[in-house]
Amino acid sequence: MKDLKAVFFDFDGTLVDSERFYFEAWKPILKYHFAIDLNFETWIQHFAGHTLARNLLTMKELWDVEVKEEFMWKTTRENYAKQDMLSIPLMPHARELIDFLVEQDIQIGLVTSNFRPTVDRMLTHYNLHEHFSWFVTREDVVDPKPNPTCYQKALMLSGFNKDEVVAIEDTATGSRAAIDAGLKCIAVTKQKAERDRLDFVTHLFLDLKEVHDILR
């Protein structure tokens, strides 16, 4: 892309292949406490890319189940700890894409609804933390994605103009935040449920190798 100065990455499902991890943590909780048999397709279609508060509303909409946020926070975090978050792999071609951006002196930022300690721990584990110039995490905004505030804040931190930046996302929720902030957005996902919702993005690809190819 001409005049590209910076790339803002989403985290979960974009840089790290974490959706299966979160699904495996939620599934036994819903089964044991609410007799809900959650499958991965339902997770991707209704839960992936959303905050805990949004997911609790979805449970109410889908199954008429009301759950306190404190309970789900505690039980999901207990299951996350049992699984070891450092076992989550990078998305295919993520490292190669980041190496390319570094070589081209294109700045890199992270814009995520995840929390800063998780982001720091995982990026450090994969020796990628030093390549990121800016971080906007859940602690930094009042209204998370799809609200554009997170991308507006990242743009302000970067000092670049909107036309000098591209966002990379994997869900309609995150992509909407980027587009509404006035950014070009590349969506990357193989999930049909998400692809069907992503007709408004600048580009829609199956993997990060395709992103690498277009940026070259």
How far the N terminus sits from the C terminus, by CA atoms, comes to 8 Å
* Cα-based radius of gyration, to the nearest Å: 17 Å
Beta strands, count: 6
User: What is the N-to-C succession of helices and strands?
Assistant: EHHHHHEHEHEHEHEH
> How much helix, percentage-wise, in residues?
40-55%
- Secondary structural class: alpha/beta
Query: Whole-number average pLDDT?
Result: 95
Beta fraction of the residues? 5-15%
Oligomer: single chain
Question: What composes the largest sheet?
Answer: 6 strands, parallel
Spatial order of the strands forming the largest sheet: 3-2-1-4-5-6
- Number of helical segments with 4 or more residues: 10
C-alpha geometry: globular
Runs with pLDDT <50, length 5+?
none
